[in-house]
Amino acid sequence: MKSKNYVEVKGNRTALWINHCDAISCLSVNEEEGLLYSGSWDRTFKVWKMSNSKCLESVKAHEDAVNSVVSTVDGLVFTGSAEGSVKVWKREGKGKNMKHKYVQTLLDQECAVNALVATKDGSVVYSGSSDGIVNFWERNKELSHSGVIKGHKLAVLCLAVAGNLVFSGSADKTICVWKRVGSIHTCLSVLTGHTGPVKCVAVEKAAESSASGGKWVVYSGSLDKSVKVWSVSEQMTMV
Q1: Where are the WD repeats (predicted)?
Q2: CA separation (Å) from 43 to 31, 46, 76, 83?
Q3: Secondary structure of the chain in the HEC alphabet?
Q4: pLDDT at 7
């Protein structure tokens, strides 16, 4: 193995460049390009070719753990870190010539960024932080900060988007359901029932969903060792 494939890690040791040297905290798939992104507590994100599981690139992204990574269809990659920042990277080239270039820092705060999510077309990006706040950015030609969403008493730990809805899971044991109209986000419902922090949330379109109003099945996982299933509609009455 070539020496360039080794990097310095804690304790004056070296580790293979193709392997993370600390816990892997997040994954994101870009199906169009056949790429898998992995983020780690070792402060890097790595790019893998899914067809052969080869590591194409390793990027030193932050000064603290990478907690979340999101890849969008237009070649942008977003990373959120325990240091409190959200960074944007642009994929350039393909194959062996592919590199991810730093573009900008969207957020730089004291509290950790725990979660990121983007709309399907990448036009809106959300971040959830340990202060219980969700920040979001909208893009025309460039990404610009468009506001904050406040509804949780404790840290936001996970995010999901579906249609015009945004879902935020929190250490306060709840899931907030937000409806987006333009840049305005209104809380439609607060899903309660977990007895521990909500660590992950996933959404799929319900079989009976209609064009007039989306219906969704929401899955939530918690430190209370349970997975709960919820039925949510965009036509729900606001709380």
Answers
A1: 17-58, 59-90, 106-138, 149-179
A2: 24, 10, 18, 10
A3: CCHHHEEEECCCEEEECCCCCCCEEEEEEECCCCEEEEEECCCEEEEEECCCCEEEEEEECCCCCEEEEEECCCCEEEEEECCCEEEEEEEECCHHHCEEEEEEEEEECCCCEEEEEECCCCCEEEEEECCCEEEEEEECCCEEEEEEEECCCCCEEEEEEECCEEEEEECCCCEEEEEEECCEEEEEEEECCCCCCEEEEEEEECCCCECCECEEEEEEEECCCCEEEEEEECCCCCC
A4: 45
Each domain of the chain, given as residue ranges in start order, spans 20-150, 158-238
Nearest alpha carbon to residue 88 among 111, 110, 53, 113: 113
Q: Is the pTM of this model over 0.85?
A: yes
Which class does domain 20-150 fall in?
mainly beta
Q: Which two tokens stand for residue 5?
A: 């494939």
Residue 233 CB neighbour total at 10 angstroms? 18
Worst-scoring range by mean pLDDT, 49-63, 159-173, 198-212? 198-212
